[in-house]
Write a structure and sequence with these properties.
The protein has 321 residues and is α/β, with parallel strands linked by helices. It has helices at 7-18, 36-48, 61-67, 87-97, 119-130, 150-153, 166-177, 183-189, 196-203, 211-223, 235-253, 267-277, 281-300, 306-318; strands at 25-27, 74-77, 107-112, 136-141, 157-158. It has 3 domains: 4-158, Rossmann fold (3-Layer(aba) Sandwich); 163-208; 210-318. α4 links the parallel β2 (74-77) and β3 (107-112). It starts with 6 loop residues before the first helix and ends with a helix. It catalyses: DNA(n) + a 2'-deoxyribonucleoside 5'-triphosphate = DNA(n+1) + diphosphate.
């Protein structure tokens, strides 16, 4: 595993497989900023491999089928156009998992965007989780693990990745770039210490920093600035920024250490507003829960006017009861 912060969980997974202590159902948070997809792909390859060691051999028949994207015992389900994953897709998947493996080895299902499963779809998956066929593995990668039904979570192994510290992330960035970071780059990326791949994309000009969105929300909330007008194309980015800003306000209210703040350049603005409005942590958590609920609602139901629903939540920020 080339990403240093994933090496420990990877070694644990390999050890569990080799000692036959690896269960059939697993939930891995879809942290693209930490390389979760790479981790899951390596895991799928390892489980299929006929001669695995520290990783899949890459040369056996099963590995070659997997590399070609033609392994007949691999099944993938994901959301299409940000729509909900319906019960029909999951029933089709569970039916296939009941069949005999074509290669007489493992059968693996990877359900991406797992939080977008409808309640009916999640319930349809339950029986397979409870009574899996032999040598069958099911991998779920939700954006937020707690968005899954509790009955699903209780039947899976919940994996967790530890975020690297800023010194660890900085050292990795310097290695990838082949140079030291400038003072401006350090300031630009420090709040992304726990998201090293996002920081790398930002430095390479491939990623738009959410700090701009957060700063605009902060100005609108704390200084009666102009509120954004989210569209169907970018409302999700504004929802991410809303969550990030509320989480930052909670950290400030809880008086966490300065190095744990993601947007330190907005601290003075936020402190003044929190003091004037006398906003409590409970109120901030309630607003944050509404953001999480909006994310869940739009993942389960198609056709909702998500930008309008997000703006309605912002109205609560503007007009505190």
């Amino acid at each position: 595993m080339s990403l240093p912060w994933l090496r420990e969980p990877w070694l644990q997974v390999v050890s569990d497989i080799q000692s036959q202590r690896f269960g059939h159902a697993h939930c891995v948070p879809a942290r693209a900023d930490l390389g979760a997809d790479s981790f899951c792909q390596a895991l799928v390859d390892y489980l299929f491999c006929l001669k695995p060691q520290a990783k899949a051999c890459g040369a056996c028949k099963s590995c070659l089928l997997q590399q070609a994207g033609t392994h007949p015992d691999y099944y993938e389900v994901s959301s299409e156009d940000d729509k909900a994953i319906g019960v029909g897709k999951i029933r089709e998947l569970t039916q296939r998992l009941q069949e005999t493996a074509n290669q007489h080895g493992a059968k693996i299902a990877w359900i991406k965007d797992a939080e977008r499963m409808t309640v009916e779809a999640a319930n349809a998956l339950l029986k397979t989780l409870e009574e899996p066929t032999e040598n069958t593995y099911i991998l779920l990668t939700p954006v937020k693990t707690n968005a899954l039904l509790p009955t699903l979570r209780s039947r899976m192994r919940l994996h967790k990745f530890n975020e690297p510290s800023w010194p660890e992330t900085e050292a990795w960035l310097m290695q990838k770039l082949g140079r030291s970071l400038s003072g401006e780059e350090q300031l630009q990326c420090r709040h992304l210490a726990g998201s090293p791949l996002t920081a790398l994309s930002l430095l390479e000009g491939k990623h738009v920093d959410e700090t701009d969105h957060v700063a605009q929300l902060a100005q609108a909330m704390c200084r009666s600035g102009t509120w954004p007008q989210p569209s169907k194309q970018d409302w999700s980015s504004w929802l991410n920024a809303s969550e990030a800003w509320l989480q930052e306000l909670i950290r400030l209210r809880q008086r966490v250490a300065a190095e744990r703040l993601r947007f330190p350049h907005l601290s003075d603005l936020a402190h003044d507003w929190l003091q004037r409005q006398q906003i409590t942590v409970s109120e901030l958590n309630a607003w944050l829960a509404l953001c999480y609920n909006l994310r869940k609602l739009t993942s389960e139901q198609s056709g909702l006017n998500a930008p309008l629903l997000l703006q309605q939540q912002w109205l609560q920020w503007k007009h505190k009861p």
